[in-house]
Design a protein that fits this description.
The complex is a heterodimer. Chain A has helices at residues 36-64, 67-80, 83-96, 100-116, 121-124, 126-141, 165-169, 189-197, 232-254, 280-285, 297-300, 309-322, 359-364, 366-379, 395-414, 432-436, 438-441, 452-459, 478-493, 511-517, 529-537, 541-551, 557-565; strands spanning 3-5, 7-10, 13-20, 156-160, 176-181, 201-203, 216-220, 225-227, 269-274, 290-295, 328-331, 385-389, 424-429, 447-450, 497-500, 521-524. Chain A is of the alpha/beta class. Among the domains of chain A are: 23-141, Enzyme I, Chain A, domain 2 (Orthogonal Bundle), CATH 1.10.274; 263-539, TIM Barrel (Alpha-Beta Barrel), CATH 3.20.20.60. In chain A, the strands form 2 sheets. Chain A has an 8-stranded mixed sheet with strand order 1-8-7-3-4-5-6-2. In chain A, α1 packs antiparallel against α3 and α3 crosses α4. The radius of gyration of chain A is 28 Å and the shape is globular. The model of chain A has no long low-confidence stretch (mean pLDDT 90). Chain B is α+β, with helices and mostly antiparallel strands. Chain B has a single domain (2-85), classed as HPr-like (Histidine-containing Protein, Chain: A, 2-Layer Sandwich). Helix content of chain B is 33%, strand content 21%. Chain B has helices at residues 16-26, 50-55, 73-85, and strands at 2-7, 32-37, 63-69. In chain B, strands 1-3-2 form a 3-stranded antiparallel sheet, covered by helices on one side. Chain B is globular and about 35 Å long. Chain B starts with a strand and ends in a 5-residue tail after the last helix. The relative contact order of chain B is 0.34. The chains are: A alpha/beta, B alpha+beta. At the A-B interface, α2, α3, α4, α6 and α12 of A face α1 and α2 of B.
Chain lengths: 566, 90
């Protein structure tokens, strides 16, 4: 009993007493027959005081939490100085001869309603900003102290209808054990700050009417489960979970900023996979050293037409700039197979995975592909952008692709548009044909990146979507491992780097093999980065090399997987 | 009177930051300014107001028509065009 399922927003375990967030302001009533000039003066004085308060919060945020988190308060200041807000309040006061409080509430309600009605979650959450600035002015008007809702004397779980950015700015993670909110999504300011500070957060509608101050509750920010009446055993169980998580996180946190080196000094670059420019944040949060795979097809999906050059250029430039000189490997359009575009008629194929997809599609439609290449080349002027070609199976494709890239460069040169003349061009290693010919391909490109998902599917001839043959799908298959070894050796023989960007790159059991084989880069979904770094820091390259030799003698995927478990 | 229609290209549309930047771009112009979205000129917005700009809910691909009337109307339209065409500083 007393177990409810909320929406998990920020992970972690919380055990503690409830502190309900106080509602500070009473209801605001319309009072007429006021002197408009006096009321306008009160409004402006309260507004200037509020601006001063926000400036102070902004400074504090800059110092304690960083530029990105402080930015919202710049927007608050702009809103407090907004001419429409001011003229709206002033004309309401003039028309009704009413109190400043009511006029402000009247105008801000209008804006809140407009923003709440918007479709995008991001814009909806801006309603919160207006609530925040208007209640700040109201507090000054009614002389309620600019109170700190987190005036906690002892650690507590904060339960609130909603938390404004000003509220969350004041969170002290040593006192706020956890937060349960009635509103807000993953992109709300509260969610972002909570995740950054490691404070667990769940959203559950109507929670404020379900608990009382001082009540002991527990919740799990990973699953969204809240237990309102935990028994001693449940509390003990959560306590253990919490300890484990804290230990694990503390160990991983220590690895931030450290190098990914084996005990004997071999370096592996740990990169993140992304689909959209906004994902770069997750890579940086997890201390990723590069972007090893930017899947550009997401820029082409969920829309009505191809993205134009400018839009793509801005997206690539954003990622490259945010990585500040660290490598960003961008894969050119990889559609077909299981990835379709609503606005593009691709004829039905018997075997789409073996059909006109990825580089085959692009070489068929060079003018379309050139739009992307122009955007990529232009963005290459802003950092270490590297172009990666997907699904190359034969040399002619690579030659043709490189020709088109050269043509595009020539066009940009003629127009005096800046790009990196020495931009790296590499290829995905995901067809067995390319893998077998890796020594030949290595002479023609600047790098390889092994796409294990497709390499497994094509090598073992197993459809990874078909559950009947799922038992065949295994990256532990000796054929796969031998191919990968061949790819790595061929790359190094020609002095080029080789990485991996499939799911196997973050497979704990396989990582010793990748280190032993000498892969230069592993690219994975960002949450795996720190854990992988921890694992690699405990490995010896020499030992790992021996393991590779032993593993490559084994006959079956099962034997290999068993051996790697040890 | 000067008038220009521009297409919004930055992926996130006119959210808080670009809206705030737009208000800064037009802040010091003395001419009368307003704009409307996708040729619906009955609903006018004020580029000097961040709340007004954000309440447009303009997304990437939307057409924004800016109208300026006054001494520095040409300069104002030029500055706005440069800002929107650069992807709103994104």
């Amino acid at each position: 009993m007393g177990i409810i399922q909320g929406t998990p927003i920020s992970p972690g375990i919380a055990i503690g007493k409830v502190m309900l967030k106080k509602t500070l302001l009473g209801e605001i009533h319309l009072v007429q027959d006021k002197n408009p000039e006096d009321e306008k003066k009160r409004f402006h004085e309260a507004r200037s005081q509020s601006i001063e308060q926000v400036k102070i919060i902004h400074q504090q945020m800059l110092q304690t939490k960083g530029e990105k988190e402080a930015e919202i308060f710049i927007a608050h200041i702009t809103m407090l100085e907004d001419i429409e807000l001011i003229s709206g309040v002033e004309s309401t006061i003039d028309e009704l001869s009413c109190n400043a409080e009511w006029a402000l509430q009247h105008i801000s309600k209008n804006y809140i309603a407009i923003f709440e009605a918007m479709e995008q979650e991001y814009m909806k959450e801006r309603a919160m900003d207006i609530r925040d600035i208007s209640s700040r002015i109201q507090r000054v008007l009614s002389r309620v102290e600019a109170s700190n809702i987190f005036e906690l004397k002892e650690p507590a779980i904060v339960v609130a209808q909603d938390l404004t950015p000003s509220d969350t700015a004041q969170i002290d993670p040593s006192l706020v054990i956890g937060i349960i909110n009635e509103d807000g999504g993953h992109t709300s300011h509260a969610a972002i700050i909570a995740r950054m500070l490691g404070v667990p957060l769940i959203v559950y509608p109507n929670i404020t009417s379900m608990v009382v101050n001082g009540q002991i509750i527990v919740f799990d920010g990973n699953t969204g489960i809240i237990n309102l009446q935990p028994t001693a055993e449940v509390i003990e169980e959560y306590r253990e979970k919490q300890l484990k998580l804290i230990e694990k996180r503390a160990q991983l946190e220590k690895l931030r900023g450290t190098k990914t080196l084996t005990t004997d000094g071999f370096k592996v670059e740990l990169a993140g996979n992304i689909g959209m420019p906004k994902d770069i944040k997750r890579v940086l949060e997890q201390d990723g050293e590069a972007v090893g795979l930017f899947r550009t097809e997401f820029l082409y999906m969920s829309r009505n037409d191809f993205p134009d050059e400018e839009e793509q250029f801005l997206a690539y430039k954003e990622v490259v700039e945010k990585m500040k000189g660290h490598p960003v490997v961008i894969r050119t359009l990889d559609i077909g197979g299981d990835k379709e575009l609503d606005y593009l008629e691709i004829p039905k194929e018997m075997n789409p995975f073996l059909g006109c997809r990825a580089i085959r599609f692009c070489l068929n439609k060079p003018s379309l592909w050139k739009v992307q290449l122009r955007a990529l080349l232009r963005a290459s002027a802003y950092g270490d952008l590297r172009i990666m070609l997907p699904m190359i199976a034969i040399m002619e494709e690579l030659i043709k692709a490189k020709e088109i890239i050269e043509e595009t460069k020539e066009e940009l040169r003629n127009k005096n548009i800046a790009f990196n003349e020495k931009v790296s061009v590499g290829m995905m290693m995901e067809t067995p044909a390319a893998a077998v010919m890796a020594d030949v391909f290595a002479k023609e490109v600047d790098f390889f990146s092994i796409g294990t998902n497709d390499l497994v599917q094509y090598t073992i001839a197993v459809d990874r979507m078909n559950s009947q043959v799922a038992y065949l799908y295994s990256p532990y298959h000796p054929a796969i491992l031998r191919l990968i070894k061949k790819i790595v050796d061929s790359a190094h023989a020609e002095g080029i780097w080789v990485g991996m960007c499939g799911e196997a790159a973050a497979d704990k059991k396989l990582i010793p093999l990748w280190v032993g084989m000498g892969l230069d880069e592993l690219s994975m979904s960002p949450p795996s980065i720190l854990e992988t770094r921890q694992q690699i820091q405990g490995l010896s390259k020499k030992e790992a090399e021996k393991l590779v030799d032993e593993i490559l003698l084994l006959k079956t995927a099962k034997m290999i997987e068993e051996k790697l478990k040890l | 009177m000067e008038k220009i229609t521009l297409t919004l290209t930055n992926p996130q549309g006119l959210h808080a930051r670009p809206a705030s930047l737009l208000t800064k771009v037009v802040k010091d112009f003395k001419c009368e300014l307003y704009f409307y979205k996708n040729n619906v000129d009955t609903k006018k917005y004020q580029p000097k107001s961040i709340l007004s700009v954000m309440s447009v809910g303009a997304a990437s691909g939307d057409q924004l028509t800016f109208v300026a009337d006054g001494n520095d109307e040409k300069e104002a339209i030029k500055a706005i065009a440069a800002f929107i065409q650069s992807g709103c500083g994104e």
